[in-house]
Amino acid sequence: MIEYSTQSRFGSSNRRAAHAYAQTHVASGTPDATPHQLILMLLDGALASIGQAQSHIAANNIAEKNAASSKALRILEEGLRASLDRTNGGALAQKLDLLYDYMTRRLLMANLKNDAQGFAEVGDLLRDIRAGWEGIAAEVNAGMSVQSDLKNMQ
């Protein structure tokens, strides 16, 4: 089980995620979003952009495909990868960094070659990460709820 504290792990990471989210303009954000919600929004934005790129490949809309691909790449690099806490994230942050690097290179090649399978591969990887991130968010929220209940009992 991965142990984490929302205060020690996500202080500066929260700021990085919020900044990264704002920089990539995924969708209208909320100032009350948790770091987990911000990352989920980034993942959703990347997945939406990849889906758009695939649709544009099928319709032979090259300019639109390039724009959607560029947005997905920005989200990966300036959002997800930039928000990694390499100081406190340990091996998990290192592995995610390598995975995001791979996905970036894979998207670049998929875009250059109009390769729908390359976009699909990155989409599958992002969906796997998103599912894991949802599980982490649920655990953190449950832990915060328990802490709140304990405080209310005192």
Total beta-strand segments: 0
Examine the coordinates and then state which fold CATH places here, giving the name of the CATH topology: Four Helix Bundle (Hemerythrin (Met), subunit A)
**First-last Cα distance:** 29 Å
Number of helices: 5
Any guess at the CATH architecture?
A: Up-down Bundle
Total domains: 1
Radius of gyration: 17 Å
Secondary structure layout:
Elements: H1 6-24, H2 35-58, H3 62-81, H4 90-113, H5 116-153
Provide structural commentary.
By secondary structure, the chain is an all-alpha fold. The chain has a single domain (10-141), classed as Flagellar protein FliS (Four Helix Bundle (Hemerythrin (Met), subunit A), Up-down Bundle), CATH 1.20.120. It has helices spanning 6-24, 35-58, 62-81, 90-113, 116-153.
Give short descriptive properties of this protein.
5 helices; single chain; 154 residues; disordered N terminus; mainly alpha; elongated; Four Helix Bundle (Hemerythrin (Met), subunit A)
